[in-house]
Amino acid sequence: MQTFTTEDITNYYDHTEPHYRQFWKMEQSMGLHYGIWDTSTKTLAEAIVNTNAKLAALGSITPNDRVLDAGCGVGGSSIFLAKNIGCQVTGITLSERQVRTATHFAEKNGVGHLANFERMDYTQTRFPDHHFDVVWAVESMQTATDKSLFFKEMRRVLKPGGRLLIADVFKEGNWKITETPVMQTMLNGWAMSDVLSIAELNDLTKNHNFTPSKVEDVTPGIRKSIVKYRWFALAGMIGTKWYNLFHNGTHFGRVHYKTGLAQYRAWKQGLWSYRLMVIEVI
């Protein structure tokens, strides 16, 4: 199994941000994650924001909650929560570039007083014990090579009765990453080593005194996002191959389009699903 350092993960996000700006409507949605489509969504940007809305509703976030956005990306979820609910949010990311981008977006959206951003590793934060009511993790938890470190730290910073909200990709079936090339291409292209199944997640949360209280399979709702990502990857493949003929591009810049193609093939094979969940402190 390939493992990734925090520097690798930082490099992935820094070197692929132009791709997200061009293809994933980053300026409008401020999100790098899958979008959930329903009757209320007409565009990809709306679907990406809809993921935030559905997870916030599932987790019953209130204006009085203090929220940690663990792996905040360019700040879209934090800004959504601050703007639509009015809660105080702290977003953390490994990337200084993302801190700058998220801070700019927050100020642009008039919520700089509610949403702030810092460069920090979510497996070893500088926050005091029992500091947050809610931890928000949209497509960030599975990035940790050792997921137990994530749950250990989130348990420490959450208050008694706190809750961890997750939206992420989960393993379906009994495949092993070392024996499944399409999943290796999909995950390694995102600087991810492997993903948990729901059963593995349940065991891990139990070990860290959490209990899942709500789990929603929204894979059908992200189908359009999966398909769009594939088409964007096909378009990007042409440009990437042409660029690489004349330039020595970065590793993640060279392989990013392969991830978009692999996630579609793996989804068609039923190897992964997408879940929203609420996990409560016991």
Q: Would you kindly provide a written description of the structure presented here, covering whatever features stand out?
A:
The protein is an alpha/beta fold. It has a single domain, classed as 3-Layer(aba) Sandwich (Rossmann fold). It has ten helices and seven strands. The chain has helices at 6-23, 26-29, 44-58, 76-84, 96-108, 147-157, 181-188, 198-207, 223-246, 251-268, and strands at residues 66-70, 88-93, 115-119, 132-138, 158-171, 210-217, 272-281. A seven-stranded mixed beta sheet has the order 3-2-1-4-5-7-6, with helices on both faces. Strand 1 (66-70), helix 4 and strand 2 (88-93) form a beta-alpha-beta unit. Helix 1 crosses helix 10. It is globular and about 45 Å long. The relative contact order is 0.15. The model has no long low-confidence stretch (mean pLDDT 94).
At the fourth CATH level, what is the homologous superfamily?
Vaccinia Virus protein VP39
Number of helices: 10
**Helix- and strand-based class?**
alpha/beta
**Ends distance:** 32 Å
**Dominant shape:** globular
Tell me the strand order in the biggest sheet: 3-2-1-4-5-7-6
**Share of β-strand residues:** 15-25%
Helix content: 40-55%
Rg estimate, integer Å = 18 Å
Mean pLDDT over the residues:
94
Write the H/E string, N to C.
Answer: HHHEHEHEEHEHHEHHE
Name of the level-1 CATH class: Alpha Beta
Please provide the count of β strands: 7
Q: Which residues form runs of ≥5 with pLDDT under 50? A: none
Which CATH architecture would you pick? 3-Layer(aba) Sandwich
Work out the count of structural domains. Answer: 1
- Summarize the main sheet: 7 strands, mixed
The CATH topology turns out to be: Rossmann fold
